[in-house]
Amino acid sequence: MAECGASGSGSSGDSLDKSITLPPDEIFRNLENAKRFAIDIGGSLTKLAYYSTVQHKVAKVRSFDYSGKDTEQDHEPPYEISVQEEVTARLHFVKFENTYIEACLDFIKDHLVNTETKVIQATGGGAYKFKDLIEEKLQLKVDKEDVMTCLIKGCNFVLKNIPHEAFVYQKDSDPEFRFQTNHPNIFPYLLVNIGSGVSIVKVETEDRFEWIGGSSIGGGTFWGLGALLTKTKKFDELLQLASRGQHTNVDMLVQDIYGGAHETLGLSGNLIASSFGKSATADQEFSKEDMAKSLLHMISNDIGQLACLYARLHCLDRVYFGGFFIRGHPVTMRTITYSINFFSKGEVQALFLRHEGYLGAIGAFLKGAEQDNPNQYSWGENYAGSSGLMSSSPELCPTQRARSGTFDLLEMDRLERPLVNLPLLLDPSSYVPDTVDLTDDALARKYWLTCFEEALDGVVKRAVASQPGSVDAAERAEKFRQKYWNKLQTLRHQPFAYGTLTVRSLLDTREHCLNEFNFPDPYSKVKQKDNGVALKCFQRVVSALDALDWEERQLALVKGLLAGNVFDWGAKAVSDVLESDPQFGFEEAKKKLQERPWLVDSYSKWLQRLKGPPHKCALIFADNSGVDVILGVFPFVRELLSRGTEVILACNSGPALNDVTYSESLIVAERIAAMDPVIHSALREERLLLVQTGSSSPCLDLRLRRT
Predict the structure, then answer these.
(1) What are the Damage-control phosphatase ARMT1-like metal-binding domain coordinates in residue numbering (predicted)?
(2) Of 175, 362, 382, 436, which is the most buried if we count CB atoms within 10 A?
């Protein structure tokens, strides 16, 4: 959300238009289909949650009826493609300052059309203050929910559904965020909520938690004492003062008392021995900045030590911090992290959340939607409609932090079925699907962002070509270009915006932006053509393989897999070749393969294993359509089946680049089975199973698999 320039009170969306730089309909998106609401109102920020249905286009494939026709005619595609409308569920979360609550409620009221509910779930202290205003504006009854229950429900939800939700803060790193891989079992953990005071809650299961302690010294203390010391009344202005201050001008350090470190106790000289200790003896005025910094250190250190003691007492090693006191502020996170590390000797980890500002709103929404059992689904963050984590550095762009340090907009799409870790993973908690962390590797980040920028024209061209009958395809494609370009520029400056930046997340963001402008499968026509061409070559390829002796055939099959995998339109060098030389095919790709030994070469071990008993079952993840899956993968599958091995062929549930989808693979397998008795009998006897992965990404992620 953009910074606002007016008070925002008024009778309709006009006042909202004047107070923000983004169009209101880009903030409160899809309001006309909103079904259910929840709201979390704190001391200075309002977080609105609503559920809506979203209509979007999906590409469907269907096998032609070939009865009475010659299926081998060159002009015949292997299947037909249609674009249909589908309705899916989406969660919207919007955060704004309380100053604009009346204008926002007016805009919502004016644009509500199909809401099903007469109740709005509300939590937070402001739920009481603004109850009458909400009921008057929205004509919805306010149903107040318990604050702590909502916070914990929200925390559980984001930890389960959003990869890289939690991060540790590292002071001297660039960037300062280090995201954590989600553990398959999030429980138990300690939640430290720092509002006016501090509440410490032990969370053991989805529905079992216990308040185990707290403190009256919290965010309200910082605000109140800060106002007395500096005459500054606004919380965020206090944080700004603290970011510019030098606490050592006010605090007494160990070295101020002992002349250096205290060797006997093992205390370094720069540790704070007494907060505000110098103010008692120094005959001088202290700056507002220095006092604010000292106060922030004092309260953060106290909270960190308290949290550490409770974590050790209850044998917990994960502590999540939330509440308005955090606000993504670097000094706060740095001090709490230092305090936890110091007092626990590194055994307890201080963790912060990308969406900590939304926990109450998410929890309140889930409470109101319990009859729909939202936890039976998995939800995925929609990068196209989410703002991204802004830098916590106040010097970089204080207005961009939008008073919270986290998100302004968050959107999550409901997935058809729950996603779980692949059971075959040896250790899901340590599994990392990506080979390069672009958040950490600046040179690799620059290279890949440039690659995606340079590929953008080609993607736009493919998107338009995929919908030849659409009059507005070119206009929508340009909007996609602009949105994705803007996302790439954001990621250049804020590489941590959506968690750990990887090639996979860049591809996922592109797919989300394409779907945003109704381009569900830009490569559908390319895949249709490539599959048709490859199917006509299948019998010739397997006949040539069958003519080889056993050992020659095994090497030829592996080379076929490698050559087929070349046909990846996501690789710029490959797409350039395929664009410039349409005749480049399977045989040409095999000739381009380098001779053994390959860069990673386990072929000799594979061959030796094949001389033993057959494998019981093989799980193969298919990649590209056309030559790859039909001439590379299926002949390999055929060989395994002939040995007596059962085969599971897993394909993407949704489209991504030119990767073969599950629905396309069904038609391809059907066409191959009509030509090949080995594939035909294996499908009939269910020794060959085709399954969908639950993914719509070009990159493999075994953490996400359909149940």
Answers:
(1) 454-702
(2) 362
CA-to-CA distance for 476 and 488, rounded, in angstroms? 18
Long-range CB pairs of 484-491, under 8 A, 24+ apart, other chains included:
484/456, 484/509, 484/510, 484/513, 485/453, 485/456, 487/383, 487/384, 487/513, 488/449, 488/452, 488/453, 490/388, 491/449
The answer to whether the beta carbons of residues 19 and 6 sit under 8 Å apart is yes
Burial class (CB in 10 A: 0-12, 13-18, 19+), 198: buried
Question: Are the C-beta atoms of residues 414 and 88 closer than 8 Å to each other?
Answer: yes
CA distance 566 to 548: 24
Distance, in Å, from the CA atom of 355 to the CA atom of 194, rounded to the nearest integer, reads 15
Which tops the pLDDT comparison, 677 or 6?
677
Distance CA 484, CA 461 (A): 14
Lowest pLDDT segment from 15-19, 438-442, 585-589: 15-19
- Sheet containing 45-63: order of strands: 141-144, 119-123, 34-41, 45-63, 79-97, 409-414, 379-381
Q: Which residues in 497-541 belong to E strands, given as ranges? A: none
Q: What is the pTM of this model?
A: 0.86
In the predicted structure, residue 231 carries a pLDDT above the cut 80: yes
Residue type at 198?
V
**DSSP letter string, 147-191:** HHHHHHHHHHHHHHHSTT-EEEE-TTSSSSEEEPPPPS---SEEE
pLDDT band at 645 (very low <50, low <70, confident <90, very high): very high
> What is d(CA 134, CA 87) in angstroms, rounded to the nearest whole number?
29
End-to-end CA distance of the chain: 36
- Name the band, by pLDDT with cuts 50, 70 and 90, for residue 145: very high
Alpha-carbon distance of 320 to 342, in angstroms, equals 17
CA 273 vs CA 261, 277, 303: distances in Å: 11, 8, 16
Tokens of 55: 């209509």
Beginning with the edge strand found earlier in the chain, give each strand of the sheet holding 166-169 in spatial order. 177-179, 166-169, 349-353, 318-322, 189-194, 198-203, 209-215
Widest pairwise Cα distance in the chain: 102
Residue in 164, 159, 126 with CA at minimum distance from that of residue 145: 126
- Closest of 238, 190, 187, 186 to residue 214, by C-alpha: 190
